[in-house]
Amino acid sequence: MTFIAQKCGICFQPPSIILIYRDSSQDKTRQRIMPVRNFSRFSDCGRAAEQLKNNPRHKAYLEGVSQRQLQKLYTLLRGHLEGQSLAESLEKFRQEETIDPEEDMNKLDDKELAKRKSIMDELFEKNRKKKDDPDFVYNVEVEFPLDEQLESCTWDIESDEEI
Fold it and tell me: Which UniProt keywords apply (predicted)?
């Protein structure tokens, strides 16, 4: 039996994750409701998502759902348990998932750094052009305009002196 996940969502009352999937063997669209148990506003969303994804009862159904999406759903549920509205929870999640280019990642702890790297990896995979894509072009060359005067960098000057 193969299951193809089509939609995944959350229900706040009672707390449950809802998966709409296509059953290939019977060629039918079905809905699976997975109750969320032992989850409070103090729970770790990443850990809860990992446990659900690895649960033997749901593992076959959740293969097509990324752990990141499940983590987002658990974050929305935690926000609901904290008394936030759905819009507030979504905005908070967007802020956590957005990478500030001016942020110094050398100052982050290992857990936060791993989170930022996974966000960057996912964004890269989403934007990457593959050979099978219709707008794929091999060996693209781009010339950038030289409107402004080039700035010299101190690290570039020092490396020239050492040679």
Answer: Cell projection, Cilium, Cilium biogenesis/degradation, Cytoplasm, Cytoskeleton
